[in-house]
Amino acid sequence: MSKSNITRRGALKTGAVAGAGLALPTIFTASSAAAFTNEPTGGTVTLGFNVPQTGPYADEGLDELRAQELAVQHLNGEGDGGMLNTFSSKALDGTGILGKKVQFVTGDTQTKSDAARASAKSMIEKDGAIMINGGSSSGVAVAVQGLCQDAGVMFMAGLTHSNDTTGKDRKRNGFRHFFNAYMSGAALAPVLAKAYGSERRAYHLTADYTWGWTQQESIAAATEAMGWETVNNVLTPLASTDFSSYIAPVLNSGADVLVLNHYGGNMINSLTQAVQFGLRDKMVNGKQFEIVVPLYSELMAEGAGENVQGVFGSMNWNWQLTDEGTKAFVKSFGEKYGRPPSNSAHTCYVQTLLYADAVARAGSFNPCAVVEALEGFEFDGLGNGPTLYRADDHQCFKDVLVMKGKENPANQFDILEVVEVTPRAQVEYAPDHPMFGGAEASLGECNSGA
Amino acid sequence: MLGLDKKDTALLLAVAALALFAPFILNIFPQNTALAFFNGGYPDLMQRFVIFGIFAIGFNILFGLTGYLSFGHAAFLGVGSYAAVWMFKLLNYNIVPALVLSVIVAGLFSVLIGWISLRRSGIYFSILTLAFAEMSFRLAYSVLTPLTNGETGLQVYSNDPQILMGENGVTSPHLFGLEMSARATLDLGPWEFTFPVGYYLCAILMLISLYLAIRIFRSPFGLMLRAVKSNQQRMRYTGLNPKPYTLAAFVISGMYAGLAGGLLACMDPLAGAERMQWTASGEVVIMTILGGAGTLLGPILGAGTIKYLENVFSKMNEALLHSWFSWLPDFIETPLIWVLSKFTGEGWHLTLGALFMVIIIFLPGGLVEGGQRIGRLITGRSRKASDTATKPAE
């Protein structure tokens, strides 16, 4: 046994030291002279770009970062101005935001909720970022959105496709420009019914996490409304790289369409393996067997190569669109980086401009004023046609692209073609839709951190 | 003092002083200078320093003393976090029930895993713990989603029961009304120092944890654990059963991990499944070895080093490097930045890897050994005299 020799004097001393230690933090009182969190006081304002730089979505993240850097240049009046020239709102004049030069800090989300929150926190607490933009996964977007709400800064979501981001997890300080799984379903289903007929039997392979489920739910509901039947839904672990054991049973199930609710590396592997199994050469129920990938991305299509040929999917935006906004953006992006921007790059660029514009129109960096300026905001010229930021759930409503893998690609970037631009009216839904948290979902109050 | 000998008291007081003045030490560079980038004195990072310090101190009780290398300790950290967030969801934001439950749940969970894994030793033990942790991660990530909210991470919603929450209850974690996110700032000329409540709470708990660890290290129980490490065979032949000792050490370190997990949730009320991934388990192993396994101070140093690299180096992007080296001529600047950019920003793992290799090769006793060598150089004392201080693990 260890000997304990507590003396009266020793105990008193220890108590005094401990007491002083405990009391010290309370001597200073919280001094919050600023009107809101990270109020920019000098000649600059700092934005935080929080993207995955390592992990499965690193390619998407790096492309987002390119676009964000470009947006900052355009805001500061460098370069050719890009979409600022085509944007319907003219509040931005290339002198930064409200006369303050725009600076940015970057961080690595590692596609993990914890790491993303840590890096967003360091941007807010250390670098004084007033807005966080980015994210290439819905889990991360939801986690960071919650953090920004609590800290009293704005969150402009990057690539996040799950219904939850503006559904059950919607927040007053968070805004999403990207489309969602419900919209994918609503846009894809009619095209699929037209191309493959209305008597199809679908087999779903779904990435086993929040985004996969909401997408599967949305696609199944939309296709069933067209008369399709959902034969089976099999959940696959996110970390799987070999899908052969999931693909083998598909043919014996009597299904004639395979829906791959996968993204990133998962999608590249599952699609490649399904094609290698010869699924697309088979005839089932007297019909040609088909594969559908509801959420496309250029970077994924590049990875899957010729396997995407003839496969349908949906996208938020594509560089091949011919409107003025798209042309201006593709031109300045192409000149700077020598490649066309991906749709995740586009959404981050647009979100940064929309934030800056809202600040300029509100005349204040105060998040509550910015929220007010963005709610119900209608704009055009940013590549998606006329767009509405709905006030009820902070989701953007705009046309959705239905894409198809090109049969004869001309070069490595020319892999997908636009099949249909689905009009906005067809993908709209009520703010209290059951897939979006129903009547219980609420934005809560805006928080400026004051 | 408090049953510690002179040396240990000095160590504890030194750590206490460091913890108390961390907001000054870590913000040593004035604001608005280029060097301010290297400051680490913001609330989130300081809290991480001490929380992962607790995690590593606990891990060291198992690894440093018994030599059992667990590759699954992150599972206990994660379980602790989930327990704490559930307390927030069910009761209210008071951190006391959250921390108590997280330690208890992590303890029970480690009894279960320890009971099974400790049937084997050496590499088999490591693999078993790794397997259990991966299993827990998979369960948390998808299978148990109603309990863990899967990929998104468990968080508190406004429509949660929170039965103890009054009408105008505090809506962020607090200790009987004292909010964890509250902080005071002190402006001294160009310097700005932040004193967060959450950090000081974590620091006090870390000091208590360290004190308990010292007592365990110096107790007969600690001696038994060292006996397990040096030769289990011999221990058995003398008629002692090592299993109860190793299991106790395993559970104690699991409870430390649970406390760390609970604190993480108290500082930021969200529990992500990635907390349980095998990389997180590997991280605490690296922390302990980097700092010096089997030493008292080592794990804390290791945790601080890794968290600093992760949060500061990972934010060094190319634009920033350009702004630092713009005074160099282009033909030097471009290659220099090309090289540096591989080690900063997204390449911070490379810096960590290189540092780890250097330390393992030249300082097998970790940072603590480095400190001792420097100390010897300064005082010019012989090797023998200081060897009694802290013995690094083999």
Give an overview in words.
The complex is a heterodimer of chains A (450) and B (394). With 450 residues, chain A is α/β, with parallel strands linked by helices. Chain A has helices spanning 8-27, 58-75, 113-125, 138-151, 181-196, 210-225, 244-247, 264-276, 298-304, 324-337, 343-362, 367-374, 424-427, and strands at 44-51, 101-108, 131-134, 154-157, 174-176, 201-207, 229-236, 257-261, 283-284, 287-288, 290-295, 312-315, 378-379, 387-389, 396-397, 400-405, 416-422. Chain A has two domains: 44-179 and 319-398, Response regulator (Rossmann fold); 182-315, Rossmann fold (3-Layer(aba) Sandwich), CATH 3.40.50.2300. Chain A contains 13 helices and 17 strands. In chain A, strand 13 (378-379) and strand 14 form a beta hairpin. Chain A is globular. The model of chain A is unreliable at 23-32 (pLDDT under 50). Chain B has a domain at 6-278. In chain B, strand 2 and strand 3 (178-179) form a beta hairpin. The mean pLDDT of chain B is 88. The chains are: A alpha/beta (450), B mainly alpha (394). Chains A and B meet through helix 1, strand 2, helix 3 and helix 4 of A and helix 2, helix 5, strand 4 and helix 7 of B.
Could you name the key traits of this structure?
heterodimer, A: 450 residues, alpha/beta, Rossmann fold, 13 helices, 17 strands, globular, B: 394 residues, mainly alpha, two-stranded antiparallel sheet, two-stranded antiparallel ribbon, 17 helices, 5% strand
Strands in their spatial order, largest beta sheet of chain A: 7-6-8-11-12-16-17
Number of helices of chain B: 17
Q: Beta-strand percentage of chain B?
A: 5-15%
CATH architecture level-2 label of the largest domain in chain A: 3-Layer(aba) Sandwich
CATH class assignment of the largest domain in chain A: Alpha Beta
Which overall shape of chain A is indicated by the principal axes computed on the Cα atoms? globular
Give the rounded overall mean pLDDT of chain A: 88
Largest Cβ-defined interface: A-B, 57 and 53 residues
The computed structural class of chain A is alpha/beta
Q: SSE string of chain B, helix = H, strand = E?
A: HHHHHHEEEEEHHHHEHHHHHHH
Q: Briefly note the CATH topology name of the largest domain in chain A.
A: Rossmann fold
Describe the biggest sheet of chain A? Answer: 7 strands, mixed
What's the Cα radius of gyration of chain A?
25 Å
Structural class of chain B: mainly alpha
What is the strand tally of chain A?
A: 17
Task: Give unreliable regions of chain B as ranges.
Answer: none
Number of helices of chain A: 13
Report the oligomer: heterodimer
CATH H-level name of the largest domain in chain A... which superfamily?
Response regulator
SSE order of chain A:
HEHEHEHEEHEHEHEHEEEHEHHHEEEEEH
Average pLDDT level of chain B: 88
